[in-house]
Amino acid sequence: MRVKVDELQASLLSSPLPQPLRRPVQGGQVTIYKRDCLLVRARTNQGQVGYGVGVPSPNVAQLINRNLRAAVVGLNPGNLPGLRRKVFQRRSRYPGLVQAFAAVEMALLDLQGQIAGCPLSEVLGGRVRGRVRIYASGGVYLDGEESVREAGLWAGSGFAACKLALGRSPRQDLQTVHALREAFPPPWGIMVDARAWRGERYGLEEAARLLRELAPSRLEWIEDPVAPEATGALRQSLKDCPVPISGGGNESSLEGWLKLARMDWPDLLQLDVLHLGGLVDGYRALREVRPLGRRVAIGRLSTPLEAAALAQLASCFGADLVAWMEWPQYSGEGRSGTYPFRLAEQMLHTPLWIDQGELIVPEAPGLGVKVNEAVIRRFPYRTGPCSSFQSTAP
């Protein structure tokens, strides 16, 4: 009997916080209400089930359930080139279609691996390593004391690096990083997500001054300290930038990301695989930039299922190219993080294995993990924003 997909379903899910989390930032306050997730389930007529995750948007979920389902059902899960032609020849300009395709593609790749009896990395192009270096990501607008406490708990969980989201104020951000570095000297790695510096919050001169003052802390990188179009001006004002700058996570297309990769900056590239086109396009992009000597960090993760998929991709390349992968760290029983994300905590039947700051890439067929489908029932979607910003400016 020919293998074909006979069912495809995208479920938009929500994991509300027990109480809204309010954090002070420059010029106001950020309030976090919930975290959303998009889970895709594809089943074959022979009973295999594959899973994918994607950008958690009602539009993306609708595109999958109303548009892509008709193209996928009845298709051999190995015929991704045919599906790509079928989808994009007629609908290439639909907003969100690239992200919808990426989520469905992951589920079909999971099926391909299960049918072939091999991990997804072998479907993509072949595994060259079984461990991927990761950093804990979860410090949102912390002060120095909070960041030291969180990092101490992450270190106790086996991490050797962390990323903080700064933006409380230039003075407080500087104090936070200095306190963290004093408590955790090198080789502990510190990354800074500086997206909150952009726009009207921190100006170009403030960002440049902060970079100079942060140089003694020996950071791994600062991510997006200014808008992409202002990066050149920032580098010019600093001449020789004292802190590595990472970028690329805000690119809206794979072509734009590859164009950035061919330049001599930023120092490290952020790759948001599921936003730019999916695992197959991610593999092609990494293969294309490998001869350029660039270093890449795979980021913008939210759940362990994404981590399992992106670790399969990262394992196809050496650490000289894919240097880091993000690991979202949420609070929960026995774990420290900025806020809880119970859906992510319950998504897999067996947690992924972290050893000495590295994620052990699963070796079982497909994604190599067992998804707990009970999350679809336990975490129904709730309308409304995940967070909001309230200005205190006069």
- CATH homologous superfamily classification of the largest domain: Enolase-like C-terminal domain
Rg (CA only): 21 Å
* Poorly predicted sequence stretches spanning 5 or more consecutive residues: none
Q: Roughly how much helix do the residues carry, as a percent range? A: 25-40%
The strand count comes to: 14
Count the helices. How many?
A: 14
Assembly state: single chain
Word description of this protein:
It is a single chain. The protein has 394 residues and is α/β, with parallel strands linked by helices. The protein folds into two domains: 5-119, Enolase-like, domain 1, CATH 3.30.390.10; 123-377, Enolase-like C-terminal domain (TIM Barrel). Helix content is 36%, strand content 24%. The strands form two sheets. Strands 4-5-6-7-8-9-10-11 form an eight-stranded parallel barrel, surrounded by four helices. Strand 8, helix 9 and strand 9 form a beta-alpha-beta unit. Helix 7 crosses helix 8. The longest helix has 20 residues, at 97-116. The chain is globular. The model has no long low-confidence stretch (mean pLDDT 92).
Short characterization:
Helix content is 36%, strand content 24%. By secondary structure, it is α/β, with parallel strands linked by helices. The strands form two sheets. The chain has an eight-stranded parallel β-barrel with strand order 4-5-6-7-8-9-10-11, surrounded by four helices. Strands 1, 2, 3 and 14 form a four-stranded antiparallel β-sheet that branches.
